[in-house]
Amino acid sequence: NPENAIEALYYPVCKACRNNHRYFVLFCAYMFLGTLYVTLSGYDYFLDQLKVQLQDNSKLDTFSEYESERSSALFLGVLCASVTVILGIFTGWHCYLVSINQTTIELYANKKKKKILKKKGKRFRNKYDRGFVNNWRILDLSKSLVVGGRKMSEKFICGVIEGFYGLPWSFNDRLDLFERALIKNAAINDITFVYAISPGNDISYSNSDDVNALKDKLDQVRSFGCEAFAIFFDDIYCTMNQKDKAAFTSFGSAHVYITNLIYEHLSRPPVFMFCPTEYCATRAIPSVENSPYLTVIGNELNPQIQVLWTGPDVISSFISVDSIIALQEILKRKPIIWDNIHANDYDHSRIFLGPYQDRPVELTKVLSGVITNPNCEYRMNYVPIRTFSLWCQSQDKDEVQYSAETALTCAVEEWVKEFSTPSQLNIDQDNIAVTMTDEIAKKDMTITTEHLMLLIDIFYLPHKYGRHSIHLINMARWLQVNSKVITSTKETDEATSPSVE
Question: pTM score > 0.70 for this model?
Answer without folding.
Answer: no
